[in-house]
Amino acid sequence: MAEARVVKNRIDIAALEAQVSGTANGAVCTFTGQVRRNSRGREVAYLEYNAYIPMAEKMMRRIAEEAESKWGCSIVVQHRIGRIELGEASIVIAVGSPHRAQAFEACRWCIDTIKEDVPIWKREVCPDGTYWIEGEDALKADEA
Amino acid sequence: MKVNVLLFGHYSDYIQNQPLEFDLPVGACVQDLTRKLAEREPRLADLKRFCRFAVNEEYAELDTKLTEDCTVAVLPPMSGG
Question: Hey, CA dihedral for A32, A94, A67, A114, is it positive or negative?
C-alpha cells in the first residue's frame, strides 16, 4: 500500500528506503529532489514550499498507488514544505521492486507526474527578492 | 449557497489571510465563481487562462457544478518536486 505524506521537517531518506526494502525486493530505487543554488540565472538563497496539503497528499498517494499496480512495486513518498536550505531534500520517492527495471521506471514516472499534478508550489528566495515559480514562469512575490 | 475559495501560488498574495467566501445561486458552476473572483479583485481576472481548479480536493472543470459549502481551490501551474 503506497504511503504519501507532506512533511515539515527534514526527510529521513534511509527510513523511507527501509520501508520498501523487504526481502522479496532485489532493487530499491530512490529519487531525491534537492534545493539547487542556481535557478535560470538567479542565485537562490533558499526555497519555501507551500502546498494544498490535503489534496497534495491525496494526489501523491493516488499517483504512487497507480505506479505500484502498473509496475508491481512498493512506493513511499514524502514532500517537504516550508523553508528548505540549499542541498536539503524537498522530495524523496523510494521504490522497492523485485527487479531494477520496474523500480527505475516507476520512480521516474512518479516524479514526472507529481511535478505536473500535485498542488505544491515553491518560492525562490533570492538576494533581489522572492519569486513564485509557476510552471515556466517566475513571478515576483508581493512582499508587503 | 455558500462557496469557500482557496488561492494558491502568487494569487495568494492578492488576498492575504482573509477567508474568501461567496454567495452563489444554486446550480452555479466553477466558471460563475471565476466571474465573482474577477469582480472582487481585478488581478484575478485571468484565472481561466492560467489555472486549474479543484472542488473539494478533486480536479474540476469550468462547468463542474458547485454545492453548498463546497471548497474551490485555484491552482496555478505547479512547481513541487
Answer: negative
